[in-house]
Amino acid sequence: MSATLAILTIGVVPVSEVLPLLTEHIDEQHITHISLMGKLSREEVMEDYGPTGEEETLITLLKDNETAVVSKAKTQQALQSIIEVLDNQGFDVILLMSTLRFRGLRARNAILLEPDRIIPPLVASIVDGHQVGVILPIPELMDAQVQKWQVLESAPHYALANPFFGTAEELVGAGRELLSRGADVLLLDCLGFHQKHRDLLQKALDVPVLLSNVLVARLASELLI
User: Fold this and answer.
1) Is residue 141 classed exposed, middle or buried when 0-12, 13-18 and 19+ CB atoms within 10 A define those classes?
2) Nearest partner of 4 among 12, 15, 25, judged by Cα
3) Alpha helices for the chain (secondary structure H)
4) DSSP state letter for 149
5) Which of 132, 144, 162, 215 is the most buried (most CB within 10 A)?
6) Are 138 and 185 within one domain?
């Protein structure tokens, strides 16, 4: 019997970019993609997930190609509900395609992969002794990134380049800025970055480039053998 995989996203994520990595070991017909907010209108998203008061928030991309600030608690509660449904449906692996940190998500039977629990220690083991430069799409993610990469021996340097609306020149410029500040390994830590962005940086700057979504997709594919 073939293994089954459910990919769970919060907003709009170009999952098609990682499918070739996943379909090395599993037929695409056994992969299901569920987006919590990706198919909702902005009005529907804000009605169901809009923040109130001083609660913790997160930023996600909606189908109008604009970001939205939503309640982290409401989002996590909804994600857990979907995970329970997918678990009951018998999926072998549930992959949460998000670089954000959630606490307390659980699956009873399926293997639940959360990149934020996997990627930081994995990257730390890969880049041991090197200075990492992280490229982010928007400055609002900076505070969460500082906390996320505390596992690294040396605090990373950061630069901005947007994979959705930015240019190739801006991406290369961000990478060059990080190298000038001492980075010798670059990390693209946003689900909007893909292998074409990594290849561009490696060719232009001749530097190792890690891609978060590729790392977690390869791990997921190994679990599907």
Assistant:
1) buried
2) 25
3) 19-22, 42-49, 72-88, 115-126, 142-148, 168-180, 195-205, 212-223
4) G
5) 132
6) yes
Closest CA to 131 of 170, 198, 179, 176: 179
State CA 131 to chain mean position distance: 21
Nearest of 60, 101, 108 to residue 83 by alpha carbon: 108
Tens-digit pLDDT profile for residues 136-163: 998 888 888 888 899 999 999 999 999 9
In degrees and rounded to multiples of 5, residue 132 shows phi and psi of -95, 140
CATH of the domain at 34: 3.40.50
Same domain, 65 and 125: no
Q: What is the pTM of this model?
A: 0.87
Inter-residue contact 73 to 81 (CB < 8 Å): no
Whole-angstrom distance, CA of residue 154 vs CA of residue 54: 32
Q: Residues with Cβ < 8 Å from 36, sequence gap 6 or more?
A: 8, 9, 10, 11, 75, 78, 79, 82
